[in-house]
Design brief:
It is a single chain. The protein is of the alpha/beta class and about 250 residues long. The chain has one domain (about 5-190): Rossmann fold (3-Layer(aba) Sandwich). Helix content is about 30%, strand content about 20%. It has seven helices and eleven strands. Helix 1 packs across helix 2 (about 40-50). The protein is globular, with a radius of gyration of 17 Å. The model has no long low-confidence stretch (mean pLDDT about 95).
Length: about 250
């Protein structure tokens, strides 16, 4: 596990974008696992900037998204399909037919979960998976619990997750209560994982991820078992980690 301490959110975004851009340059036909939420937005902006400068080419890239709200279609402004179009896809030369996300309107959730699991397997797995982290240490929408689902599944969101995501909606009542999410197996089988985190509200979750006991009660803690993880976080997010592990600019565990 490599930990990179950033000065602020802008520095965090640039450092994460550097890792992703290296993946794209070294393997132009990479399969990228992408995340939504506020944490990766700056990273996407940096990638777009480098694309506009001619430094990156997305034409052979395949993208698979972590999750999608149940009940929201791709034309809903709160859907993650919409988020990805607005924050990345429409700004670069990625082929829309190579951009995959769970179908939030699927009539048969079980069949949709199986389809998405098989899709990722058929692509040969994920080369690089970008992750955020929830305040309760969830990754994707793999919520804390007694056990973790290994494959794509429909999950009932915890109240803490609903409250955290309410900022994207008019009010908390509008936040969907269920979501499709990539399973922990697909995430852990990614050849490289990049987790971004910023802000004091992520400090406890990041401490559990890096220093805590490996447990389904803190899904991000399983990243300790992966052999190629980059944690890119700002000083506030790393504040509790640094009480256990002194970090200057970077550290390898």
């Amino acid at each position: 596990m490599r930990i990179y301490k950033a000065k602020n959110e802008t520095d965090m975004s640039r450092k994460a974008a550097n890792i992703i851009s290296a993946q794209i340059i070294l393997k132009p036909d990479s399969v990228l696992g992408l995340a939504t939420g506020s944490s990766p937005v700056g990273t996407y902006r940096q990638l777009i900037d480098w694309y506009n400068k001619g430094d990156l080419d997305f034409s052979q890239i395949t993208a698979v998204n972590l999750d999608e709200y149940q009940g929201l279609g791709p034309d809903n402004e709160q859907s993650y399909a919409w988020f990805m179009r607005e924050n990345l896809f429409k700004h670069v030369n990625i082929d829309p037919t190579n951009c995959y996300i769970e179908d939030g309107l699927a009539e048969d959730p079980g069949a949709e979960c199986l389809r998405y699991t098989e899709l990722i397997r058929g692509l040969g797995g994920i080369d690089l998976q970008l992750l955020g982290i929830g305040p309760n240490a969830h990754i994707g929408f793999n919520e804390p619990g007694e056990a973790l689902e290994k494959d794509t599944h429909l999950v009932k969101l915890k109240e803490t997750t609903i409250r955290a995501n309410a900022r994207f909606f008019t009010n908390e009542d509008e936040v969907p209560k269920y979501a499709f999410t990539m399973g922990i197996k697909a995430i852990m089988q990614a050849r490289c994982i990049v987790l971004v985190a910023n802000g004091e509200n992520k400090a406890e979750a990041l401490q559990k991820c890096i220093c805590g006991t490996i447990s389904p009660e803190a899904p991000a803690s399983f990243l300790q078992l992966h052999n190629n993880v980059f944690i890119v976080a700002d000083e506030a997010a790393l504040s509790l980690v640094e009480k256990t592990i002194p970090i200057e600019q970077s550290i390898i565990l």
